[in-house]
Amino acid sequence: MSRAAEAVAGDAVELTVDKQVGEGYGLARHEGRVVFVSGAVPGERVRAELTQVKKHLAYARTTDVLQPSPHRVADRRLSWGAAGIGGIEFAHVDLPHSRELKAEAAAEQLSRLGGIEGTGLRIAAAPSEHAAEAADPGAAATTAGTAWRTRVQLAVDADGTPGMRAAGSHTVIPVDTVPLAVPVLDDLGLHTLRLPRLERIELTASHASGAVVLHTRPGTELDPRAVESVAARLGEQDGQWSLLHRSGQPVRRGGRGGGPAMRNRGGAAVRNRGGSSRLEVLAGTGEVTERLHLDTPGGPLGRDFRLRADGFWQVHVDAAAVLAGAVVEAAAGASRVLDLYCGAGLLACAVGAAHEVPVTGLEGAPEAIAAARANSADLDADFAVARIDRLSELPAADVIVLDPPRAGAGRAVTDALTASGAERIVYVSCDAGTFARDARALTDSGFTLASCRGFDLFPLTAHAEFVSVFTR
Ligand SMILES: C[S@@+](CC[C@H](N)C(=O)[O-])C[C@H]1O[C@@H](n2cnc3c(N)ncnc32)[C@H](O)[C@@H]1O
Question: Transmembrane stretches, by residue range (predicted)?
């Protein structure tokens, strides 16, 4: 008796994409398996190559579109000379529809992992994209959503050519333009330089200032020509630009001085600053200044935040204002606010200033806490270094704000939130999956999810931000 040959990676298959799920995948079925397919739009019939095959599921990438969705547009990466780069999962979808697909994927995760139904979740456009789409409806298929990143990392290959990593691979693809970056980072032109001995560069653009961090490969010295060529580009820019170097020492595992291992926004493990490798300021102050503008019920609020050039700040050019605005609104009526994972103090300072209430902020990175203290000198605010997941008790507050990294808060933190005296939790999340898991823990222990708002603060990628309020 003959049997159909078992599917293997490399096989070409035809798929009908049923719906959108997390990480930018469309979901299809093929010969008894669930297939997660990239580069497709729900409703489409595509030909795809299987990239990974397991017993009950497989991964695939679209190679040809047989019946296109009306929401399919020309892959924007082609116009950037950046075909195949990863991290821009909706490069081929019109921008408003990409938001609907993210909302569909997040609702599925909230239901499956969090047992949460009927939130009516929408993902709202950030003001810049909203304006671009309103000014020119055609922009939704082309330029809207393509110039928002104030923080960008370029990988550098062994020959010193900068670029972006290919999807699912370490291969560096040279680019004609810095994808998704705010114009000033593209204008620097660092992606056109040869940068020997570097393994990556971090680019930061903030209010009237910016910074570039050069990361050398482990065991190599900085190449003076690379430093000179980058410094020359920074010298041509308006505003204050800093140039920094982080040596590529291998990260120490355990031992003293290593600092707590944490997850950054993208989920990659990072060492607490200062423990693993040295950050050296080659030019400028080594700091950037961010400016927050908010319209609050009490009137306009403007604040400057200084932070270290490599310190955490919300990435989308509108993100700080959008998230701070939503958190200020959600914290209305609070008498004392605790901000967990507070970074340089953005949310704590916005809430403290808008509602004139005392705030406490806790965060693992000492440099961020030093910045938060300086940024809150005019407020009734108290900031301290702490590993949130190791706290046995939380400081007293009636409203607790938390904005954990992509890995979410986890059981120890949700238990501490439950044990606290807080009546309201304002949870800011950049990952619907880990948020859904934490939401289930909170609702299982007596909290009710009162609201969940989505914001497209990572346009054209699979990610979004969520601001949710739990009450009890
Ligand atoms: C998404 S950022 C939020 C920062 C801040 N809310 C803001 O908007 O600028 C998460 C922060 O959590 C910190 N962090 C990550 N893991 C931590 C942990 N286990 N304990 C304390 N802080 C942590 C990171 O250093 C980072 O500053």
Answer: none
